[in-house]
Each structure stands twice: as structure tokens, then as C-alpha cells.
Amino acid sequence: MIWFSLFVLVHALLVTLLALHVSRLRVTLRIANGDGEDRRMRRAIRAHANAVEHVLIFGLLMVALALEQASATMQALLVVGFAVSRLLHAYGMLAPAFRFRQVGAGLCYLFELAAIALLGFALI
Q1: How many H-runs (helices) and E-runs (strands) does the chain carry?
Q2: Is the pTM higher than 0.85?
Q3: Residues 6+ apart with CB under 8 A from 26
Q4: CA distances from 10 to 4, 13, 35, 90 (A)
Q5: What are the b/e assignments for 30-40, b being 16+ CB within 10 Å?
Q6: Residues ≥6 apart with Cβ < 8 Å to 67
């Protein structure tokens, strides 16, 4: 379960930092609710929400794979690859570097599908 614990550590930090960024922008821009029609706020909110959306489902996949006793090497590959994809995506969302966002999203889907396939094979 070491890889799941590492996954939780890294992604809890990422989601928390993205939430703090939203809060910091709210204070700086004086936007109490919503995005205030501000492009930076909208990007920050979406970067945070997108991370939560993907981290949650991938976390469940990692728990299931750990319970099915997937190899440590496979768990390591999935956790590290997914973490890199989420970092690239977050950077691409916040620093208008669209290519990073595209690559991060593509890799994110790739690692999610790989985890789904691995879990499916483990259950057969």
C-alpha cells in the first residue's frame, strides 16, 4: 500500500495547493462567489475542480488495484505517471501553456485507462 499512500500524499498536496490558489485569488481580486467574470479566477477554479474530478476516480482505482495485489512496479508506474500528468495539466491550466494542458490531459486519460484495464484483468 506504499504506492497508494504516496499517491494520497502527492495529490492531497496538489489539490490543496490548487484550492489555496483559488482562495488567494478570491482575496486579491475581491471575488466572494463564482468567478466574478475574471479569466484568472475561472482558470484557477477549473484547474482545482478538474484535479478533484480525476484524482478521486484514480485514487479509487489505486485502492482496488492494491486490494487485488497488483505488482508494486505496476502501481509505481501508474502513480508516478499519473502524478506527472496532473502536474503538467495544472501548469497548463494556470500558466496559459496550452500544450502542457493537452499533454497532461492526454497522459491522465492514458493512465486512467491503463489502471481500468489492469483492474479488469485482475478481476477476470
Answers
A1: 4, 0
A2: yes
A3: 32, 41
A4: 10, 5, 27, 13
A5: ebeeebeeeeb
A6: none
